[in-house]
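Retry 2 of 3 after timeout on previous attempt. Resubmitting structure tokens to design endpoint.
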């Protein structure tokens, strides 16, 4: 059989988009999960040795050797673990059990002068190891890979907000011409929303929690062996030392409400970027934004002139896929039949895929933002061609001057009609207002009617 490479990958995440998903390999791969399981088992073994109640003793040199099993875990080690699980290795027959394979791997790598095989995985169920190992991967994947990408997008939006703070642009509500804004202010809105969403993701990642309470969450095996040990306090300390919150009351499984919170926070951030992708796509379509052409890139296979907004379209597709996966994951992992069923095991293996679609979506959105430039003249021409949008300002000023029917007057003069700025000026000439107010009205233009939008953009 020919060796499989990216072109033979079943999933585009490991094929077409492999260069984008590479940063997640240390956290989302099978090898990464093996390494994290070894870390949990080794640290648990060392923690047992630190209990006064156990006769186990591990000196500094032995601890260093044990920790090297996960600190220096490589492809060869992963291959050994896989062989232990699927076909057997050395004196061990195939386990057909991925966590048991980890136990045997540690036995094989244990220092020669340490007799502690019986203490590996002592009193634990596989889920004690798995739930901790998974969170040791999910937490840095979110904090060190996804969040920095989100922050980079937010920084770009802030820069765009400041650069184009005072570039006026026709707004559209319900798809119709509305009170003008500035391009910078609209980017500031997205920067603000994304900043808040990033905070929610960070808090969710920081709050990930783990359990270490045995087969039914009762510490039964631990208590049977050492009834005088305060096992809940031990578990709290152990899980905390791994950088996780402790989940004290569980069945065999961690309820995974913490993961659901993280998935929901990521969906929230993704929804903001989806909104951005759609809006920028429309701005490109309206020629409010131009795109810098990439040398040698083909926009259309038949229309040579085209520069398509493919980055935003790709981002939209990947973020939509990510959200679908995250929604499914959040719903699924928080349910278990009675104290445990195994259906969640295969589902949790797809967390990395959901994160990968997030990462591709973020990268593509950032690539797209780097290519767009406002067409200021197009925006100004559109504003000049839509003078009816100052009607809001006119009727508001007239209300201030005591015109109870101001709204109705402006509506009659503008709604459903093609209006010019001169039509407004003719209307102003017939009003019973002071010369100062008339001058105030005549000074109104679509281009200048942007309120404090520039200040809002500058303040982000």
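Retry 2 succeeded. Sequence:
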């Amino acid at each position: 059989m020919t060796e499989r490479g990216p072109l033979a990958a079943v999933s585009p995440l490991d094929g077409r988009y492999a260069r984008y998903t590479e940063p997640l390999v240390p956290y989302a791969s099978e090898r990464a999960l093996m390494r994290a399981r070894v870390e949990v088992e080794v640290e648990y073994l060392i923690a047992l040795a630190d209990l006064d109640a156990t006769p186990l003793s591990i000196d500094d040199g032995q601890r260093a050797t044990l920790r090297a099993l996960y600190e220096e875990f490589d492809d060869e080690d992963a291959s050994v673990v896989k062989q232990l699980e699927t076909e057997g290795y050395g004196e061990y027959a195939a386990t057909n059990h991925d966590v048991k394979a980890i136990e045997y791997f540690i036995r094989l790598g244990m220092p020669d002068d340490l007799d502690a095989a019986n203490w590996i995985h002592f009193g634990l169920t596989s889920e004690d190891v798995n739930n901790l190992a998974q969170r040791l991967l999910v937490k840095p994947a979110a904090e060190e890979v996804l969040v920095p990408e989100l922050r980079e997008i937010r920084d770009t939006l802030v820069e765009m907000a400041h650069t184009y703070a005072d570039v006026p642009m026709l707004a559209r509500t319900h798809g119709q011409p509305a009170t003008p804004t500035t391009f910078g202010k609209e980017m500031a809105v997205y920067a603000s929303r994304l900043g808040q969403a990033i905070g929610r993701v960070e808090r969710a990642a920081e709050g990930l929690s783990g359990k270490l309470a045995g087969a039914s969450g009762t510490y039964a095996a631990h208590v049977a062996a050492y009834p005088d040990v305060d096992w809940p306090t031990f578990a709290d300390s152990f899980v905390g030392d791994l950088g996780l919150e402790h989940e004290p009351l569980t069945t065999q499984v961690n309820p995974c409400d913490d993961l659901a919170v993280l998935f929901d926070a990521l969906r929230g951030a993704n929804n903001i970027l989806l909104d951005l992708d759609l809006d920028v796509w429309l701005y490109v379509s309206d020629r409010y934004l131009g795109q810098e052409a990439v040398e040698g890139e083909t926009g259309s296979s038949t229309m040579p002139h085209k520069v398509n907004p493919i980055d935003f379209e790709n981002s939209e597709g990947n973020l939509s896929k990510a959200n679908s996966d995250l929604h499914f994951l959040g719903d699924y992992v928080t349910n278990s039949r009675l104290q445990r069923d195994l259906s969640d095991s295969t589902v949790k293996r797809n967390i990395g895929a959901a994160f990968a679609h997030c990462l591709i979506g973020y990268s593509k959105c950032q690539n797209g933002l780097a290519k767009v430039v406002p067409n200021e003249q197009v925006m100004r021409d559109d504003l000049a061609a839509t003078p009816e949008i100052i009607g809001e300002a006119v009727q508001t000023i007239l209300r201030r001057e005591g015109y109870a029917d101001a709204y109705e007057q402006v509506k009659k003069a503008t709604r459903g009609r093609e209006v010019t700025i001169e039509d407004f000026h003719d209307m102003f000439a017939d009003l019973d207002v002071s010369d100062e107010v008339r001058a105030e009205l005549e000074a109104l233009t679509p281009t200048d009617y942007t309120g404090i939008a520039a200040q809002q953009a500058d303040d982000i």
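Attempt log closed. Confidence is low (pLDDT under 50) at residues 300-306.
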